[in-house]
Amino acid sequence: MKRIKRLSLILLLPVFIFSACNNNAEKKKAKKMAIVVSTLNNPWFVFLAETAAAKAKSLGYETKIFDSQNNTATETNNFENILVSDYCAILFNPTDANGSIANVKKAKEAGVPVFCIDREINAKGLATSQILSDGYSGSVEIAKYFVEQLNKKGTYVELLGITGDNNTRARSTGFHSVVDNYPELKMVAQQSADFDRSKGMEVMESMLQAHPDITGVFCGNDAMAMGAYQALVGAGKDKMVKVFGFDGADDAIKSIKENKLVATGMQFPKIMAEKAAEFADEYYKGKRDFPEKIPVAVELVTVKNVDAYMGFGKK
Amino acid sequence: MEQTAETNLSPVEIAQKFWTKQFHSYLDSAVEINGFLKMLKENPKQTFEKYSQSQGIGNTSFFLVKGDGVITNISDDDVTVAAKSNNDVTTIKLNTGIYFGNAVRDVTGKISMGDFSNTMDFNTVSSELNKIVHTQIVTPFKIKAVKGAAIQFVGCVEINQEQINTDNMQVLPVKIIVK
């Protein structure tokens, strides 16, 4: 009889272990949200991260912001720290559409939901939801205005964002889907300035030496546009060359009001960041059915309608 | 558009398949243009709820409209039509220039960003559908269009919910019969 009891215990042991593991996986995590942002070296992303944190706090969560410094290795370290620190959700602005997939996969395996903000990852079924700026359509609107402002002719240059980032590709492709239909508008140079203001200035300075007669610049974000504008002021060409940005950053909106930058695409970081925090809160409370990807519209801001806007959104 | 996620079709093939196999079955749901404008004026909220399609978060929505009318003017990028219904007449402009928006992709509500692992593919579907409309609908229509001709049309309308402006409404034609 004792042997039978012992045998039963041995046979049932894996069931107990499995059951314990299962309970552990389903254990309610702490009310802590991690906000992982691609960079804090750009005011737009600072606003995005701080808005997400503020919303999460208002919903009753502790928060911590992690800066990936535009580096997927740093991002991976951030995820490793988060996944051993009992966070219940990650509000995530990825560094690289492909390079960030592995981090989201690890989080999913650890039972931590990830909500992507602004930038996407090129994968389905890993992030719980992705709330993304519709950069392609926004750039189409900017490009239509660009064509009008340059009277469908002349030479121009393009400053691209970080290579490999889907937003870089979406904005550039959207822009060219319009501008390339006008054969008298010729792009004479295209170079990455990594979404960075100082690099934008450096790249613009060098482009101006090779192409002094350009009449337009399209930049993949406002930081590069502000840097490019600074370079044009330094070269005494700011009145001849029209600069177009993308983001709707505070200094870009002020610059449009002062007739310096010609236009930008207003993204809505507040809407995206707050929606991600709300989704994470709903997930914590038990909801599991979220739209895989949600585009957030981008609006064209010019001197004609700039009074309706402020940095990072509408008044 | 669930099948897009399960197949290995390229965005261009997805657009072609959607246009040839699915898109036209939605044209019957188009709203008559005069009645549509009346509803929009009287009860915009209900009109948007009942007839519009849109993607995600934003103010832009798309409607499918239809009408009968007479061509009153032809210019490089549009054809002006006096659209008649009973005693109502509305002047609209059929867009015959290059179209750059997402009306054709989004007006049925059947293609969603979530169907695509890469958003660029989703955008390519839109630009490909625009090319198809330009080649198969707009270009042949421009050849046949003459002032005074009677036409039947179905088209897409893009309206910003915050700034509803129906003056000289632009309609992107997706089906036209010149009588």
Describe this entry's structure for a reader:
The complex is a heterodimer of chains A (315) and B (179). Chain A is built from ten helices and 14 strands. With 315 residues, chain A is α/β, with parallel strands linked by helices. Chain A has a six-stranded parallel β-sheet with strand order 2-1-3-4-5-11, with helices on both faces. Chain A starts with a helix and ends with a strand. Chain B is of the alpha/beta class and 179 residues long. Chain B has six helices and six strands. Chain B has helices spanning 3-6, 11-22, 33-42, 44-51, 103-106, 119-144; strands spanning 31-32, 60-74, 78-85, 88-95, 150-160, 169-178. A five-stranded mixed β-barrel of chain B has the order 2-3-4-6-5. Residues 1-6 of chain B have low confidence and may be disordered. Chains A and B meet through helix 5, helix 6 and strand 11 of A and helix 6 of B.
Distance between the termini of chain B: 34 Å
* Helix fraction bin of chain A: 40-55%
SSE class of chain A: alpha/beta
Structural class of chain B: alpha/beta
Number of helices of chain B: 6
Strand fraction of chain B: 25-35%
What coarse outline of chain A follows from CA principal-axis ratios?
elongated
Widest beta sheet: strand line-up of chain A: 2-1-3-4-5-11
How much helicity do the residues of chain B have? 25-40%
Number of DSSP strand runs of chain B: 6
Task: Tell me, rounded to a whole number, the average pLDDT of chain A.
Answer: 92
